[in-house]
Amino acid sequence: MAIERLTRVERAVRGAFVRGILPDQEERVAEFGKHMRSGQLESLRPGEFGIVLGAELARALGVTTGEKVVMIAPQGQVTPAGVIPRMKQFTVVGIFGVDHYEYDSGLALMHMADAQILFRLGDAVSGVRLKLKDLFQSGTVARDLARSLGPDIYASDWTLQHANLLRAVQIEKRMMFFVVFLIIVVAAINIVSSLVMVVTDKQADIAILRTLGAAPASIMKIFVIQGTIIGIVGTGLGLIGGISLALNVETVVPFIESLFGFKFFAKDIYLISDVPSEVQRPDIVLIAVFSFVVCLLATIYPSWRASKVKPAEALRYE
Q1: What one-character DSSP code corresponds to residue 10?
Q2: What's the pLDDT tens digit per position in 101-116?
């Protein structure tokens, strides 16, 4: 479907995906009404041939609310002169922006009755959209529908329509886990090196404790507790900082972008213009437990080394 700006001075033509909707029921499947930058979905009334355009599509066409555009349907009319494309004039009654480049630049909404007239569908429709409470069950639901409705019905879901984006997100999630793992390992190595230096510096004190009757296990417990406290404090500060950043990423990221003059995500490349963030309790618990366990394991070698200090050798040159 092509959309052409109706003007005598300038012409602009853009391809678009046209969707017929029922404005009073659209909120049950998609929240376009909450992302209207001008106009409203309720302005789409049957027989008035109004249209709502994505923000980038409206910008490319150079139109605003109240202006006219011409829809050119791919199904043509057969005449003695040949096949002539079917065209219809529409009035822009609203502009939406969902910050997803694919929709903002290539989606147009009209009333379902007008779409049926434009595409000559009569009372029929070409598809039905469903909204699920759990979006990750969409693949299962689509497969169940395809099996129950028969081979004449094609069922698709967002994981198929945006397969590349989903695959990229999954790869990034794995890489982020690997990066977090490396950060935790580096922190554990710092704990090991710090405790080894403490053991080396405190050999005389350890030797005195041994001469006073302290057992090697007691010496080992001292440094295990010290390393554990470092791990607990570091893990706590990391959780506080990470959760605070995740909850305020929508404020922090624009500040950094404006400060350094660049964008993390170009919407025409990454399809999204904002950095999404959602705090998930299982991930927080997993990272916290993993960090604590690694820090605890990092104390074993320095503590064992401290327990093996021989009082006679340590005090020989004191």
Answers
A1: -
A2: 888 888 999 999 999 8
